[in-house]
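Bumping my old thread because nobody answered last time. Still need a sequence for this structure:
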């Protein structure tokens, strides 16, 4: 029974690696390797955005949220839509003025080289830490399937993903994302119907029991005293405002997402990809949350104890209860999400390392390199970051529930990134010193908030953005006095 499932997983892993590596022939320059030659259609970029936004954290972490709570996480997803409006009107026009390879080239145009390096370095730290959590999430799934230790589990997926990312660049990332997203959504739909088959009474029983336990509740308009207001993670206010700021930062300032927007043929296609991705992401989160509710009903009705930690809930059910072949398909779909996100992270980390650090330094020192030489360096950077993520992934097993760990780590740094971008595009007053002061203040504020307050992670980006923006704005007053002195 298990051999059939394992066979499907192995065939998938070999097949997707071969498919991605086939794009090596089209990689002749950095434009090809980091932007896919700007030839991908908008719908493929939209699905690639969803794949990068999803990851294994969503697939194994979202059902666990609904299992323990309700559908309140969807309030954050509504904030994602508002963020896309902000990005398309405020940031996207700036990215399509000339050809950019990274988000941080915009910062250099506005504030100078030092601020570009600081924002790029913030991204590298953010993405490495957040992706480390996602790499560990992969090991949870593989450990259940193969019974391997965490180290071996991480090594298997890391090795295969690095191979096709190394070979095929951004083109391989986008098109493997499309295949992998179709696979993991299909796997989720199949598993949803199969869970329903294991619940006596079917959907009527799910509806009755889940409704009685308020599992289908989405909106929480509670306000209350300020300390309580800011400590509640999933309220309407935290979801709309927090989700908006979180996604404006992740999709508008982080290279992982901006790289996809820059890979579009035009600003119009980039905007279409951005909004289409929200429709898919809303459907997808709804699907995984409903799966979590159904698993709650399943364990309640059958009396079987839920696996611990809660992140094992969905993959454990898949491997224990789905029939031969179907279990293999769903496990392969979970690995698909993991690989698509990991490949995107590796390519974006490599692009920032080369375009924001190495290439400007080489130009300053007068070193002339050919496109072929830079392409070799880009591939070497991909390997280097794979090693870094492997190490962080192994340490991430100590950091708590995977979905919230990943989001809270990202949210600490996102605020200073978004704050300095808004300072650049919304004001003309602030200069480089003011921007640097704002970023430092934003990071310091968020480190304090995370370590010494009970404020929920959904508020982190808003607080960090405000601290960065207003400190930069205040600093610009002194900066201007220095100029006129």
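Sorry it took so long. Here it is:
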């Amino acid at each position: 029974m298990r051999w059939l499932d394992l066979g499907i997983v192995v065939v998938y892993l070999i097949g997707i690696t071969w498919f991605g590596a086939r794009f090596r022939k089209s990689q002749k320059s950095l434009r090809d390797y980091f932007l896919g030659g700007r030839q991908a259609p908008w719908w493929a970029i939209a699905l690639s955005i969803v794949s990068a936004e999803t990851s294994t954290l969503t697939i194994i972490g979202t059902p666990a949220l609904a299992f323990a709570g309700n559908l309140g996480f969807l309030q954050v997803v509504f904030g994602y839509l508002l963020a896309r409006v902000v990005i398309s009107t405020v940031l996207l026009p700036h990215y399509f003025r000339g050809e950019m390879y990274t988000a941080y080239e915009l910062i250099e145009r506005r504030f100078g080289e030092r601020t570009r390096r600081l924002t790029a370095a913030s991204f590298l730290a953010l993405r490495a830490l957040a992706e480390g959590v996602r790499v560990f999430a992969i090991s949870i799934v593989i450990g259940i399937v193969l019974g391997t230790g965490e180290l071996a589990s991480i090594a298997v997926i890391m090795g295969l993903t690095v191979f096709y990312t190394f070979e095929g660049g951004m083109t391989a990332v986008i098109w493997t994302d499309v295949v992998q997203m179709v696979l993991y959504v299909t796997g989720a739909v199949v598993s949803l119907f199969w869970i329903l088959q294991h619940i006596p009474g079917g959907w009527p029983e799910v509806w009755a029991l889940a409704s009685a336990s308020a599992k289908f509740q989405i909106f929480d308009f509670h306000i209350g005293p300020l300390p309580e207001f800011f400590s509640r993670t999933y309220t309407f206010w935290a979801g709309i405002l927090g989700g908006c700021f979180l996604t404006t930062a992740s999709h508008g300032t982080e290279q992982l997402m901006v790289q996809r927007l820059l890979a579009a043929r035009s600003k119009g296609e980039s905007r279409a990809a951005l909004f289409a991705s929200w429709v898919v992401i809303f459907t997808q989160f709804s699907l995984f949350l409903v799966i979590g509710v159904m698993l709650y009903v399943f364990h309640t009705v059958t009396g079987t104890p839920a696996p611990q930690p809660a992140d094992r809930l969905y993959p454990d059910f898949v491997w224990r209860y789905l029939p031969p072949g179907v279990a293999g398909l769903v496990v392969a779909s979970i690995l698909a999400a993991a690989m698509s996100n990991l490949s995107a992270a590796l390519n974006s980390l490599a692009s920032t390392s080369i375009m924001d650090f190495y290439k400007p330094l080489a130009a300053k020192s007068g070193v002339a390199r050919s496109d072929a030489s830079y392409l070799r360096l880009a591939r070497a950077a991909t390997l280097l970051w794979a090693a870094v993520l492997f190490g962080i992934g192994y340490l991430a097993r100590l950091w708590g529930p995977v979905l919230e760990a990943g989001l809270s780590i990202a949210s600490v740094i996102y605020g200073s990134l978004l704050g300095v971008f808004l300072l650049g595009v919304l004001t003309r007053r602030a200069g480089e010193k003011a921007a640097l002061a704002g970023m430092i203040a934003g990071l310091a504020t968020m480190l304090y908030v995370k370590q010494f307050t009970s404020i929920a992670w959904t508020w982190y980006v808003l607080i960090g953005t405000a601290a960065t923006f207003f400190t930069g704005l205040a600093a610009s007053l002194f900066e201007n006095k220095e100029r006129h002195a």
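The chain is about 80% helix and 0% strand. Let me know if any region looks off to you.
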